[in-house]
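[agent] plan:
  1. take the single chain provided in the ticket
  2. run structure prediction with default settings
  3. attach structure tokens to the ticket
  4. add a short note for the reviewer (M.T.)
[agent] executing step 1
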Amino acid sequence: MPVPVFAELRRRRVFRALLGYGIASFAVLQIIEPIMHGLHWPDAVLSYVVVPLAVGFPVVVSLEDDVRDLPLPLAAEHAGSGADGGAARALGRHRLGGEGAG
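[agent] step 2 finished; step 3 output follows
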């Protein structure tokens, strides 16, 4: 049974990544524009910033799903129970070098 495209994108949290990328890109543009004018840089500088941001957009879409498939750190795999799955306790034991610590 085929899954609708928008439902699959929503399940994979692609929309969340796109929203975050859009907000970060907007912030970069809002910061670079007054700096550019204050330092009397040519208008081409804005183009040099916009092009990488535009190229990064499809990269974020294609890599968003791949990032979720990465393996968890070893300490988090052996974590116990708790609100965070015990990951904080397991990481604390790992950093302090023993089972009794943490």
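[agent] step 4 note for reviewer: Helices lie at 5-11, 14-38, 44-68, 74-77, 87-96.
[agent] ticket updated
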